Amino acid sequence: MKKIISLLLTMLLVLVPAAIAGAEKANVEVSVDITVYTLDVTVKTDITSGLTLKVYPLTYDEATDKNVVAPGTMPIYLGECTTPVAEGTNYVYTFDSFNVLKSTKTGEYRIVINNTYTHDFDFVNKNDKIEFYNTLASASDSAIESILKEAVEAGIVDFDLGEYFDYPPEVKDEINDCLADLELPALGADPSDDAIAAFEETLKPEVARLLAVAEFFQTEVEDFEDAVAEYADDLDLDLEFYSDEDLEMDPVDVYDRLHGLTNVGYGANEVSEAFDLATLLVMLDYADYGAVTDALKYYDGGVIDLDTDLTEDFTEAKLNKVSQNMKKEASSYNSAADIEAGYKEAAEDIL
Q1: Which of 163, 276, 156, 254 is nearest to 212 (CA)?
Q2: What gap in Å lies between CA 242 and CA 247, rounded to an integer?
Q3: How far apart are CA 113 and CA 91, in angstroms?
Q4: Residue 208's beta-bridge partner residues?
Q5: Global confidence as pTM
């Protein structure tokens, strides 16, 4: 069964041991699995005498600045399990699945085990999530930040937004533009669970990718090499030449070239293409002409589109001569168009 609204999918929280009757110390791990309106709770512990379980809604207490169980609050569920399954030196208690009411509000809830151990979790009402997704799907780029902010404050967003709200305006604008162009489908008033899952399978990876782009582009030069390693997979960075030890490519040079490019957006291919272009520009600056020849062949048809009709009959020696001539002008190249024009000019000079 697909987990449609899953805020804490098999999330484990080890609680602080506390003394209870019959045991000096007890270790308790609580796992909550939420599927739409169904909650499944398992507890791993060294307690052998059986467990009771209560689930309470939490409310914000201004005096303590914490979410608490308000006096007189009734639990939304009462459960008991006396038949654990041994697992090593511990025991696993699996409580009966229970369905919360469809009117159960989005918010934070607390599990209380044996009136002693607590575990807090978030629950999002399905209808709240549907309303949020429908609003987001039809939003303009200028409205996305406020929509996300309201949803976060309401506890509806169950995916990581990282430092989104702290980013400079120009970074948020790039993210918002990409989200507005994502063409998320309107779900309507009563979508199927599969439709919601498909929506999330489009939205959540894209949000994660955009946050990775933001972090990558905001990396300081001294941390650039580590950032390339960290985000290479997420951003599809091609390290073919960047990681070639024989080239001894200086990450500082690639950083400078990358940040010297203009009009690099946050689109799916823009980041990887910008990285390729920066790498190629650095090779034209510093690599020997044989390596440049290899790089021009490698990137042609990707980040650059060379006029190879001019050079289709060139020997390797002539191709190296093209690269050698291009290196003389490398400091004036700042774009793919510059490289393409330089290649054409260098080839024509030796025809």
Answers
A1: 163
A2: 8
A3: 14
A4: none
A5: 0.81
